Each structure stands twice: as structure tokens, then as C-alpha cells.
Amino acid sequence: MLKKPIIPTILFVCALIFSLFMLVGEKNKQTNENNNLEENIIKQNSKPISNIILFYGDGCPHCKIVDQYIEENKIKSKLTFAEKEIYSSKENANLLIEKANICKIPNNTIGVPFLWDGTKCYMGDEDIINFFKLKING
């Protein structure tokens, strides 16, 4: 009499375990699909990472000209670059000097706006605007 409930119980447990495996497998499949979708969205929305750094100073009139060009031509949507203010940040000012030294620019001639593209230095609004024009228009 005790053997009759054992067989249905074993079948019930097996069915339950099978259902759990199927449920976990389906959840993992959905998670992987969501991760792939997120990766694709990030890839589509991300711009290439660059080493370009634009150094500027608050109140600098030539920096304002460059900033106006960037805004009017939507440069930030087309090109990724970092912007670093140097008047209020000693760390940024030191980084500017470091990049200028790579280009062998004497410290007493360094000014802003200043752009580092990863290998070359550009100083002054005209040089920097021309750099952006070349990068955007090819």
C-alpha cells in the first residue's frame, strides 16, 4: 500500500525538475537576447573613442570662437573628444603642459585654445577649427 504513492510522487518530481530546467533555459535565452540587443544599441549610438583633448580657458575669447564653431557645426555629435578647462584645474593645466612638451612647444608660448589629437598639437582658434573641418569633412 505504501508503494502506490511513491511512483506518482517520483513522476511528479521528475516533471517538476524538467519544468524548472525548461524555465531556466528560457530565461537565460531571453537574457542573452536582451544583452545582444543592448550591445547592438550601444554600438550604434557610440562614436569611436579618440585621444583628442581640447584644452580651453573660461573667459578666453579665442576659446569662445572654437566653442561657437563646435556648437554651430554639431562637432560633438560627429567626433568624440575630451574638453578640459585649465584656468581652474591645475591637473588639466599640467596635462596641457605635458602634451605641449611632447610637441616641443616652449612653456612660455603655450596658450588656449589648445588641441591634442593624440600625436600633434594645434594651438589657436584657426588651427583648431581647421582641424575639426578636416576631421569632419575628410
Describe the main β-sheet briefly: 4 strands, mixed
Tell me the β content: 5-15%
* Structural class label: alpha+beta
Q: Radius of gyration, rounded?
A: 29 Å
Count the beta strands. 4
Element order: H for helix, E for strand: HEHHEHEEH
Helix % is 55-70%
What is the typical, i.e. mean, pLDDT? Answer: 87
- Strands side by side in the biggest sheet: 2-1-3-4
The best one-word shape is rod-shaped
Report the end-to-end length measured between terminal Cα atoms.
87 Å
Q: How would you explain this protein's 3D organization?
A:
By secondary structure, this protein is an alpha+beta fold. 62% of the residues lie in helices and 10% in strands. It has a four-stranded mixed β-sheet. A hairpin with a 4-residue loop joins strand 3 and strand 4 (121-123). The model has no long low-confidence stretch (mean pLDDT 87).
Concise summary:
The chain has helices at 3-45, 61-72, 75-78, 90-102, 125-137; strands spanning 53-56, 82-85, 114-116, 121-123.
